[in-house]
Structures are given as structure tokens and as C-alpha cells.
Amino acid sequence: MKKLIKQGTAKGQIAIPPSKSYMQRAMAIASLAKGKSIISNPSLSKDGLASMDIIRNLGCKVEQINNEITIEKLGVPTGLPLDAGESGTSLRLFASIAALYDQQLVLTGSGSLKTRPMHMIIEGIVNAGGWAEGNGDYIPIKLKGPIKGGRFKIDGSETSQVLTGLLIALPLISGDSQIEVSNLSSKPYIDITIDILNSFGVEVSHQDYKIFNIQGSQNYTGRSYEIEGDWSGASFHVVGAAISGKATLSRINPESVQADIAILDAVKRAGATVLIENGNVVIEKNELHAFNFDAMDCPDLFPPIAALAANCKGISRINGVERLTHKESDRYTTIKEEFSKLGIKVWKEQNTMLIEGGPIRGAIVHGRHDHRIAMCLAIAGLNATGPIEIDNAECVAKSYPHFYKDFEKLYYS
Questions:
Q1: Is the pTM of this model over 0.85?
Q2: Has residue 55 been placed in a domain?
């Protein structure tokens, strides 16, 4: 699919779609709970749907009626492959959950997941006392439990999602566990996990995100749970308003623990105005200038921040490039190459991406099968001197299926 982007101005209000990060974690926990759970305001993105398919194959009854999903644990895994689609989060979360069972299961996926290293998943399960092996360092992964927990170590430098899966699974085993985590990245995502664990009746504790203590023999209790708005998706409209006009974002929690709420700090650093009014977030353009930003704990913000920096005077510096290699694309290389087509210079110095703002020209660009790249190119096009045509534009469905509908409403209505 090709999408033509012309100059536009942010005005009006849109409701932000639900968070797939909250959705996937809530689905995973509900699949282990005693009794029924009702998930309202669900994310029906491709990643969210992948989680639904996985918990069905783990023995859950899953029914969707209007804007609610009912989940009830009924049996044991079907034995069918647990297919994560292109969702790395689903793969990492459900690996530890699958390893609760004394049954060999297979984790698989498609697209970019076939080329993304999976050693951290295998190491996490083995360290927790289970068995796992991959196709070399890649999917499919065969695994068998039950994991035994105890005291062990994991490396959290590449992703926090393996730890998240363990934090979800280990409270259900009979013994206590203690995980020593080195170099943990994306700490706010662990806060999300702990928040949802607590909501379903389970507690874990940690010492400065380095030692995690998990009491065994706990139980999840089914409940009604509403998914909050997605700051990852909202970040593109925060930037869109900051570079082109004024917008009000509703159905978004201005006090969220989501990592990507840090986008508000980024646009304020660049000179935009941010206000909280009646629980909504209002962003308005001002004169924009270069800024520095640390994205080590929120690497998904690199694409929208790149669009922001391209519209600022001077050279902006974004720290955390090392977190970009194993995403849906190699996002440093992708941003550098696609933004060069727009006339924007991007380079790096060690772990920092530098972007020199300037006139954005029209061009034919490619989404690179990466939802966040396609969205950031669309936002960058709001101030372009000519039309921008995005090829592979449909890849936004991975996290934000209605992105272009909201885009038309907010910038062209």
C-alpha cells in the first residue's frame, strides 16, 4: 500500500488508541488467572491479536464482544505452535509462561522475527530451570517446563521483556525465586508489568531493578481490566502537533508509567508547549530549536523524535543508538537512509544519533516493514516542501491500525 502525505496542520482532538504493551501483559496474566477476566478497550493491533491467538493455544477460551474480550482458563495447551506473528513482545512474554507446562511447545513467528536473535529467551528459560533450544539463535524455539525458579541471573541489556515474562510466570510455581538482573534496559516497562501484576492480585519486589524477589505459590484472580491509552502511538501526534499546530489528545493517562510518556519532555526541550487540561494532553507549536534527549529507556521514541529533530533549527542529539539494532528494522540505519531521501542529515557518534534539522523535501520513501518508521515519515511530511509518498505504508497495522484515519482527522480536517 502507498500513502501520499501532503502538508498539514494539527488542529482539533483525537482519542488515542489503547496500549499494546498493557494489552499483551494483561492478556498473558489473564490467561493464568482463576476465573474470568474481562479486558475492556483492547488493542486490536496485529500484536494484540497475536497474543489472543497464543493464549487460545495455551488452553484459554477467548471471546470478543464489541469493545471487550473475555478470557477464561479452561485446559492445557493444545500443542499447536505458539505463533507470535511479528510481535517480539509476545514471543518474549509467552516463552516463560509456556515453560510453566510439562509439555514440549514450540514458539514461532514471521517477518522480521525470523532474523532477530533469540538467545536471551533461551538463556532465561534455562536459567530458570526449564529446557529450551532454538534454530541456532533464531526461531522456532522448542521449550519444555516446568521452570523451577530459585536464584539465578539474567542479562537485561537487550530487552526487559524476558524479565517481564519471568515476573509473570514465577509467582505461580511452588518455590520462591530471586533474579539478579544486570544492565536492565527499559525499566519503565517493568513498572508496567508490576502494575498489572498487582491489579490481578500478585506482588513482586525489587531492589533498584537489580534484584527481583518473587514469592511462589501466588495466584492471579480474574477481574475486569481497562487498557489505558498508548503513549507509543500518541508520541507521533505529540510531535505532529509540536511541529505543525495544536492538538488535544484524549483517552491518554497524563500520569502513566509508560516509558514513552517521555515524549512530552522531548517536545518541551525542543520548545513546544504542553498543557494538561481536564485529563487531556494539549500540545502546541512554538519556535523549535535543537535539543538533547536520552532514549536508552524508551528506544521506541527514536522514530518520532527523529521527525521532531528534522523540524528543529540546529543539530539534535539522541542517546541510545545501541537499543535500535534488533527492532522491526535496524532503526538507526533505516532512519538515516529514509531521512536522507527527505534531505535531512542523520549520523551517529558512538551511542548518540545526531540529526540536523532543515527543509524537508518531498520524496518517495519506504516503511521498511516497520510500523514506527512509516508513522514517523508521515509526521515528518507535515512540513515537507512537496508530497511524500510512503511505500509499505500498511505496516502501521502492527501497533496502530487506524493511524491514517486519525492522521486525516487531525491534520487535514
A1: yes
A2: yes
